[in-house]
Amino acid sequence: MGLSTHVLDTMHGTPAGGMAVALYTTSDDKATLVKRFTLNSDGRNPDGLLYDTASLKVGTYRLVFNVAGYFKSRGVVLPEPAFLNQVSLDFGVADTSQHYHVPLLVSPWSYSTYRGS
Questions:
Q1: 116 HSE (CA, 13 A, CB side)
Q2: For 6-55, what is each residue's pLDDT tens digit?
Q3: Which residue range forms the structural domain that includes residue 22?
Q4: pTM of the model
Q5: SS3 35
Q6: Would you say 20 and 70 are in contact if contact means Cβ atoms under 8 Å apart?
Q7: Fewer Cβ in 10 A, N or C end of the chain?
Q8: Pairing verdict, β 2-9 and 99-106
Q9: Cα–Cα distance, 55 to 87 (Å, whole number)
Q10: What angle (nearest 5°) sits at the alpha carbon of residue 106, between those of residues 8 and 103?
Q11: What is the pLDDT of residues 61-86, one digit of tens each?
């Protein structure tokens, strides 16, 4: 159980290995950085879970994905400013006995997310 993420690059049809991500806890208008990491070749956190079951707390969180930086590193020519620079996903954890998986499907022009399993 716990919290995890996974990013798929829908432009290239591959995992978004090399994308920089930041995880925050949030409360009201305040965000506190928990960790920064770079996705592995499978588009996942190289250390596994972001939080294991024992560490995950009920509350609100934010994942920030450096989308423009990732696509530029892949050689994609983006306008300046890029349409999507960073994608920020705010989400809540209500039941820490369940797994919270937060995937991101992204291109330079669109993204989608959902609560995965």
A1: 13
A2: 999 999 999 999 999 999 999 998 999 999 999 999 999 999 999 999 99
A3: 2-113
A4: 0.96
A5: strand
A6: yes
A7: C
A8: parallel
A9: 25
A10: 55
A11: 999 999 999 999 999 999 999 999 99
The total domain count for the chain is 1
Report the C-alpha gap between 20 and 69 in whole angstroms: 8
Percent composition of the chain: helix, strand, coil (DSSP 3-state, to 5):
5, 50, 45
Residue 21 is predicted with a pLDDT of 98
Name the residue type at position 23: L
- CATH code: domain of residue 83: 2.60.40.180
Contacts of 8 (CB under 8 A, 6+ apart): 14, 15, 16, 43, 103, 104, 105, 106
Q: Is the pLDDT of residue 99 over 90?
A: yes
Instruction: Tokens for 115, please give them.
Output: 């609560």
| Residue tagged 């609100």 (tokens) | 60
CB 64 within 8 A of CB 25: no
Phi, psi of 26 (to 5 degrees): -130, 150
From CA 97, how far away is CA 16, in angstroms rounded? 28
Phi, psi of 59 (to 5 degrees): 160, -165
